[in-house]
Amino acid sequence: MISFAASKPAIVAGLLAANEIMELGLSRKDLYQTAWRMEGHGDNVGAALYGGEILSAPGVADASCLSAQVDLDLRAVVFIPEMTGATHAARAALPPTIPLTRRGLPACGPILI
After folding, report:
1. What is the pTM of this model?
2. Which of 56, 61, 70, 109 has the largest CB neighbor count within 10 A?
3. Cα–Cα distance between 105 and 109 in angstroms, integer?
């Protein structure tokens, strides 16, 4: 995972600096959980904190590093649609039973996979 948004590494850098300067003694796992709560995307802050490819899942306390020196025999699958659409139009197409919040829409992710 490569994050081009500067906020993710900035959050992680701030937490790492505070941990060192204030001698908080927080573990990487603690820093990861705090960064995830602040930023909202565990994979993004995980890549900034741990480096490499990160797998994160809601309800799982720590990230799984996928780029360890273990061959996971993974394959990348990329879907590039011929047509694109606006996010607001896609959200409008969802039934009203799916709340458009950080909890509602991301909860549908495992279903879509």
Report:
1. 0.54
2. 56
3. 7
Tell which residue, 57, 52, 41, has the closest CA to residue 8.
41
Q: What is the pLDDT of residues 67-105, one digit of tens each?
A: 655 666 767 677 777 877 787 787 788 787 776 665 555
Q: Is residue 87 part of a domain?
A: no
User: Domain tally for the chain?
Assistant: 1
Whether 27 and 62 have beta carbons less than 8 Å apart is answered as no
Indicate whether 109 belongs to any domain: no
Cβ contact 29:61 at 8 Å = yes
Would you say 83 and 74 are in contact if contact means Cβ atoms under 8 Å apart?
no
Query: Measured between alpha carbons, how far is 48 from 35 in angstroms, rounded to an integer?
Result: 10
Answer yes or no: is 57 within a domain. Answer: yes
